[in-house]
Amino acid sequence: MHVNGKNYQTIWAHPDNNKIIQVIDQRKLPFEFEIIDLKSAHDAFEAIQNMTVRGAPLIGVTGAYGVYLGLLNATSNDWSNDLVETANYLKGARPTAVNLAILIDEIVGALNGCHTLEDAQICSFSEANRLKIREIEWSEAIGDFGCELIEKISKRKNGEPVNILTHCNAGWLACIDWGTATAPIYKAFLKGIPVHVWVDETRPRNQGARLTAWELAQEGVPHTVIPDNAGGHLMQHGMVDLCIVGSDRTTVSGDVANKIGTYLKALAASDNKIPFYVALPSSTIDFTMSDGVLEIPIEQRDGEEVSHIEGELENGEITKIRIINGTSRVANFGFDVTPAKYITALITERGICEANQAAIGKLFPEKLLGR
Ligand code: MRU
Questions:
Q1: What does pLDDT average to over the chain?
Q2: What do you get for the CA distance between the two ends of the chain, in Å?
Q3: Which residue, of 148, 161, 284, 365, has the fewest CB within 10 Å?
Q4: Is the pTM of this model over 0.90?
């Protein structure tokens, strides 16, 4: 998608030196647009952990490139042990988004046939590139399927803008391109369907206000940033036609872990009979888990994200200020789980399905068989 009119993806190999992987530093957006270099598995780990890169699909692809970077620094006689160690190390960078473990396992699996370190380096680079391209194709397919839903509502509304509420950033910044929740929105917008997006600010890190609003603005998509608490009110007053959110881990029974606050939006949508869709590639489906509330690990993050807020001063300086007293305790759960019963449907790269095991299994039969 676009940054100041120029096409970007979120991760790529340095054009002059493919031993360097480059990413957009998302901690600085929307105030500064900076690209940083990853040169080792440790750099990839840190980038995932400190949220230079974030969003489930991008975390997964960064992990895959991390395996490649690890192999570049491996010793030739012990590279297969190094590989296992690096893979386990990278998987520990963040706990909730299952894409990380899934893509790392995939890239490690693809290296099975490699006999030398040099082979493994070459193979891991092409495999990471393949996984990246696959994510882009999947996002685009999600966009096409989801666009049909928006188009149907648009026809019903006789060309009045379709109001879509989204939470956090499940946009191209969270993926490689297109996004998951935003892909149908971009596709509809490009087709000339009038859309308007309600962007939840998404405290505490404000990925909605900082990232989703920025990327929608870059594409020229009409949108409005709202405090997290506003969604229920908008839904009660007919100002939301549908919700589309992303996912960090979806169980085989259709429960969805996504950014904290998603569950409350799903409850409000259910109470107001507003369709609540979750857009996700199959790299976000954990076929080993069934009960999302009981089984999905929920990341707990630094309390400073709650007690402080970051922004830009009038003079352009980025600063962080404390917004609560200095002694109260804070809690910072990064994600919550929306039970399948509140989800109208899942929008995947293979089509739209109900959030239950039978429907998911119909779309991905080979994955269910492998359980
Ligand atoms: O903590 P983050 O910013 O990595 O959380 C991101 C989200 O929760 C997204 O909604 C999710 O990863 C879906 S991404 C397409």
A1: 97
A2: 36
A3: 365
A4: yes
